[in-house]
Amino acid sequence: MRIVATQCLLSCLLILLSNFNLVQAESKKKLRRGSVNENDEIEDMSSSDTTTGDESLGTTTRSLSYSTMTDAEIFALQKTPPYPLGNSKCGYSSPKQHPGCTRGVASSPQPTPPLPTTSLPKLPTDAPASSAPSISPSMVPTTSEPTVFVPSSSPTAVPTKLADRPLNCVQAVQGEELTISSTATFRQGEVHCLSVDGQEAYFGYTWTNQFGLFVNGETVWTAPEDQVNASFERWSLQGDGNLVLRDSNNNAIWRTGTCCHNGSQLKVSMERVWIESSRGSQLWSEPFFVTQTPSLTPTSQPTGPPTPTPTLAPSLSPTPLPTGLPTPPPTPSPTVEPPPTPPPTTPPTFEKPDPYSGLQYYAYYYPWYIRNDWSRHGYQDEPLLGKYGTDEVAVAEQHIQWALETGISSWVVSWWGADRLAMKHFKKGMMNAPSLNKIKFCMLYESMILEGRGNWYDGSKEEALFQHLKTIRDEFFDHPSYLKINGRPVIIFYITRSRMMFQTGFDGPSILANMRRRLGYDIYFIADEPFFDPYNKRPDGNENAFKDGKQVFDAYTTYNMFIDSKVRPGETATDYQLREGMPIWQEWAKKVPMFPNVMAQYYDFRGHKPLLGNSDAFMRQLREVACLPRTNFNGAPHIMFITSFNEWWEGTQIGPENGSSNNWNNYGFQFMETLAEFKMEIDSRGSYWC
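RE: above sequence
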């Protein structure tokens, strides 16, 4: 009996020990699954069936593997409507493809709800909410990765609304950027996905009516919400390079305005989205502040022999000006050769030019300054000559000498009317300067004076223009220094793209032909027309570049491509000009004679964002613009405009300032010296080539 009793006692002890081990094992499982805390009381398992094969286990927990789950099952576990931009690792189709998703991770343990009495059904993503089972957080699988997918609130039903549906990644690329070719069409919920170095982005139209670029859950850029709304149906990059969003009636509700560039591509990176033409030109980019501007300060010495820095003539140090208007003794100046004779008429060819082949640069000149009275507008820098008056011959002579030393071959003079102060000063000062015969000049017709002069339809505005041009003809065309291109006197129209001056009812070819006939001169008209709108997309449908297939003006230029919204903090005028202006100049140069402009700096008295300037940046801009591919239309010369010599109100001047620490840019002679160095490079055909 003792033996039997001993055996019974040992059997009981073994049973108790077995139950204790089972409790410990289950506790460890719970700890691994995160269903209890280390300090939680471990529930008594003696009354529970721990057999995992029985489907009627009550509160027994289970562990499911994602490898055996469908997307719908995973979606039912993790999906929390509305589908947020949130963590980008959750932002494509399902966490199954993106295990780094941390959306909805519980910050503290949640109570375990009871499991359903049946196995987990395989549901479609559009199943009704009532068919979604209640899921325990402990059903999330245990993996070697520390991240677990645990809902932070009660389980969410399978989505039934559009806003709750997952996005469809129609293109997935691992790398620095992805490319979307033209003619492809995409609908709501279809996005293009990019991943690199743990960063993830998508571009497209979300279920929450946002069209844009999203990186790591943050919005980088979206199209204007007032234009892109619930009426959207699809978007595409058209074959002409225009990105367009359309509604169900095929109406365009938003576009980039980049048409007429066949073969363009839409590109996406972690920083921005942009459209690139087949020639590599950037046609459109959002946002504008992402790309970092490289430092212009050299970090090492050049490997080759340095380019000699020119020593400017003594005339760069101004002679003290008298209070009266006596003519100073002439300052010795280098002999300037006349502009090269244009080549004979040839068929149009598009080529990358030799930057030293007949290059001329013309500078905008403003003769409206009154000595010691510069109070009309604010200005940021003090001129080296002080608050000079442009009606003084000594001032005009000094300006000419600086122009000759730096290579400026013509002034482009602001013309507001014969009776205005600017013209009175110009005729009194510049027209009497001893060295005027060594430089050319032409008139910049300030088109704003046409405002309030009637309209083009009844001929009243045309007649006003004729009277203005007749005055310019009578006063200047016969002067030996008046600028001519191919023997034709030059008139430059400022801001022809303005609706008030040159648009509504303006029949360009007919009106300009009539002007030439009535004035008796074959005038060479240049228009300040190109801007960020395509040439054939003017606000009222008028086309100032072409009319019925005919070129309206003889040539085109840009005075200033500035728009506040496109300026990046702290950038130079060179960076802005080459990024924003160069693509537009390149496209126009394929169709018409295009004369680009350079601008060393910009600081407008009206409070616009400033563009800094320095000599290194300005030299880079001169060289790049000189190498702009251009079309040789009927022997069009190689011209580059400088904005400006002395527009102190807008802060674009290259004319020297006094170097005071009170000046915003304190550039002294930097820009004049850079121009002189560039002239030396041209004259000697130096080391720089396109």
